[in-house]
Amino acid sequence: MLVGMLNPFDSDNLARLAGHGITAFALEAVPRTSRAQSLDVLSSQANIAGYKAVLLAAHHYPRFMPMLMTAAGFLGDWKGQLVCDDFAGYKACFEQGVTEIGRMAHARRKF
């Protein structure tokens, strides 16, 4: 049995696995339901990408960044534009002149 990211549209690879009698489950083909959430590789990879983005930003940030900090505490009196996913912690920043820039990936949450 093989479980992993298998690209289920690669028929040559699937034929090779079947030829060897291997039962394979492509995790990217698991439906996105609450019951199968622990197997949802799209959400888990997006979560990992989010952590990576924070680490990359911290690397380029000119000052020390504490481990525990609220969104408003981190941004302080900064003015500009912010791409975020409608996290409630940013609402105070938007009241102080920060412009929220949404992404299409999160537009569905606002309707």
UniProtKB/TrEMBL annotation:
Pfam families from the UniProt entry: AlaDh_PNT_N, DDE_Tnp_IS66
EC code: 7.1.1.1
Record field: catalytic activity: NAD(+) + NADPH + H(+)(in) = NADH + NADP(+) + H(+)(out)
Gene Ontology molecular function terms on file: NADP binding; proton-translocating NAD(P)+ transhydrogenase activity
GO biological process: NADPH regeneration
Keyword Translocase: yes
Domain called Alanine dehydrogenase/pyridine nucleotide transhydrogenase N-terminal: residue spans: 2-49
Transmembrane segments: none
Cellular component, GO annotation: plasma membrane
UniProt keyword list: NAD, NADP, Translocase
Leading EC class: translocase
Transposase IS66 central domain sequence ranges: 71-111
Database matches in InterPro entries: AlaDH/PNT_N (IPR007886), Transposase_IS66_central (IPR004291)
PANTHER family on file: NAD(P) TRANSHYDROGENASE (PTHR10160), PROTON-TRANSLOCATING NAD(P)(+) TRANSHYDROGENASE (PTHR10160:SF19)
Role: The transhydrogenation between NADH and NADP is coupled to respiration and ATP hydrolysis and functions as a proton pump across the membrane.
UniProt name for this protein: proton-translocating NAD(P)(+) transhydrogenase
Organism of provenance: Pseudomonas putida
